[in-house]
Specification:
CATH topology of the largest domain: AhpD-like
Mean pLDDT: 91
Shape: globular
CATH class of the largest domain: Mainly Alpha
Radius of gyration: 15 Å
CATH superfamily of the largest domain: AhpD-like
Structural class: mainly alpha
Number of strands: 0
Distance between the termini: 42 Å
Number of helices: 6
Order of helices and strands: HHHHHH
Strand content: under 5%
CATH architecture of the largest domain: Up-down Bundle
Length: about 120
């Protein structure tokens, strides 16, 4: 049976091609709180993103809502890219930002818009 770290690494490589170097077995870089990256591979990408109950597109939409509410700009940068890879259109991402104004407030939505404009470009 494949362990959660390997499943998480595979999922992350599929959703963000080229971000994780070939041959990597984790996200450790030797810095402060080094284990945090591998913990996210185990617990988030390996255990949650690989569950059968929701497809990746749906998981991306739920994740964007949570990260917008938390005003987690750095994580949003990554997850806007993942959302596009998982099939969300630019318009759907915009609607998620608009929708969150009613639940997380305008400051959170404006913050998410700033990050989206930094990461995503209209074609």
């Amino acid at each position: 049976m494949v362990d959660t770290r390997a499943r998480g690494l595979d999922a992350l490589k599929e959703m963000l091609p080229g971000v994780v170097p070939d041959g990597a077995t984790g996200l450790s870089d030797g810095g402060v709180a080094d284990e945090l990256g591998d913990m996210s591979l185990d617990h988030v990408f390996g255990a949650l993103w690989t569950r059968p109950g929701l497809d990746r597109r749906s998981r991306s939409l739920v994740t964007l809502g949570a990260l917008i509410a938390l005003r987690a700009g750095d994580e949003l940068k990554l997850h806007f890219q993942i959302a596009r890879h998982n099939g969300l259109s630019l318009e759907e991402i915009e609607e998620a930002i608009y929708h969150m104004t009613g639940y997380a407030g305008y400051p959170a939505a404006v913050s998410a818009r700033r990050v989206a404009r930094e990461v995503l470009r209209r074609s």
